[in-house]
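Input record (one chain):
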Amino acid sequence: MARKMTTDHEELLVRQIWSTHEPDGRWLDAELLVRVVKDIMLFTDQEYSQVSNYQQGDQYLVRSSDIEVIGSEEQLGNVIAKISNEMLRGWCMGRHHDHDIHMHHEDSTTLVLFNHLLRHYNWDAKASLVLAAFALRFADFCLPIFLLSHHSNINNPLAAHIAKLKNFPNDLISILRPRFRALREFVDAMVSITKCIIRFQGLPLQHVSLDHDPIFPTTKPLIHNAVFWVVKSASICFSSIMDLNCTKTDKEIETITIWKLSSFSNKLTTLRDELAQHVDSCYELTDAKLYNKFLTLFKDPTSTDNQNVLSMLFALKDQFPLMSSSLSKLGVSELKNKTVACFISRPELLSIDQLILLIQQLYDDPYRTKLQGSFDIVWFPISSSSWSQSEMDAFYFLANSLPWLSVRQPWRISPVVIKFMKAEWNFNGGEPIMVVMDPGGRVTNVNGLDMMLIWGIRSYPFSTEKERELWEVEKWSLQLLLGRIDPLVMKWVEEDKNICMYGSRKVEWICEFKEEMDKIIRTGLDLGMISLGSYNSQLKKKTREVMFWIRAESMRRFRRRQEEDNWKMVEKLMESDEEGWVIFGKGSDLVMLKGMEKVRECLEMFQKTWGKNVAKFGVAGAIRRAFNKPSSSDHEAVVVVPYSSHDQHQQEGDTLLLCDRCESPMEKFVLYKCDGKLE
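The corresponding structure, as predicted from the sequence alone:
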């Protein structure tokens, strides 16, 4: 019968609490606040303190500035202090009215807290705020004791005077160790059930509905009951600590207190187990619905607004999910009517060299001024495991240093979003990808990173169609190979100057080649020289060398994805390590020599053959003819150009065509052909 009365009493209290719930839009990061509570309980554990230090445990530390509060003008510390003071007032009142068996002071304090200080907060915030208030009081009590304990190396006169005023015995630690252990177990149970409450509060109900699923209506009352018990339990723990200030320690009293604390801890554990099952079931339903909604949204060809898509990607748990390089908070409305490139990577992002090239290609090109406000990049780092403090610090450093936007708290992104990115966008946790969405939220390129590294801002809007268009019209040329890796080289390319690019893993070979080429240049050959090293060289590369090989690697990746074998020169470049390589030419007329013997043979032929033909055929053409002497395998090749195209070529100037078989320049003739058709 007594059990039934207790249950009815609890149900009445929970109904009263529900009637006080009036959320007004206030929000705080309950997850991080609970993590602070765990930190406090951890560092007040004397056994932990003996074997650990702050450097080893830094993955548990949370900066106070990380705990955000939205919609409240009052500082978080003030709110927690008011709750602590109310719990203290309730404890003082309870010491004078403990005879009231119908309303213990913990229940009275709980109702006052819900009715006044917690009324306008969400359920997860209510529980975490009260937990924080208790944790601070517990730390205040423990600090002077621990500073004076024989385990501490700190001689603290202030702690000694505080202990004297509180009349603490010298062996208080050993006396209270069982109670502290029971308290920590009790707080662990409160933290555990609060995490379930936070998980429930984080359900993406703004995007998918559970109103018609039976599990949801049965879970909400469990949430209300759980929050009630967390707040009441915190008040019980608070009283247990305060009693030590004015009650002499007694073995019998200690035994009873520990038994009561353990009983409440067991009750919370039972509640947690039931609640966790319900919350897990809710997430199974929402995850499935959310994933299906992702599939539908991203395949909708009629979408004209990216806000719904981006809200699902970034803002399932956060109203301001993005931040700029100044670390200011932004909403997804910042991306409205823009092309959005979602830069998905591991927390360490790219190498420094790749970052420099990407920033140069996208942000240092004068063409960017024409596209100002048309697109944004959003960095979306994904960790392979839970985020450590060092990873968070590294993330904030990079986010503050880079010119694009970042997901503000990537460790809070929904697992469903990450699952979708891995399954539908093929992010495997290794190489980064750049998923591009048009202003309507439609995916136009599942990886535009390579085209950005090759063409930069000029590949806007970074779609697959634009990439295909660029490759169709792009010729194998110095402009494509070299890009903007060096101002002087850019000037040579613009002047249509003959250039010699060369490299090898062997420094001796490079020096020898450069010496021989200097002799040739002194004969009057106008030729720009640029050393670009080797792809797999272990030597420290210059900036232009690094950028060149990053671009070449991007070209090779794209051609492999397209399963084309037309651009064999890219593969030859990437494979030319110890052999050495040279590319001569200008514009799109290029010839590549691979291997030391081939290069040496070319240099030896300068005076006898190809040096005499540079004026007529250009450097590349002259070298090509020198290596393709007439033989018994002479052949003829014919390319028929329609009249309109031929006429256009005549107006634009001579166009050099190369033979597909021997790569020699083809002589130009005019052919008149009748198609035999009558009008």
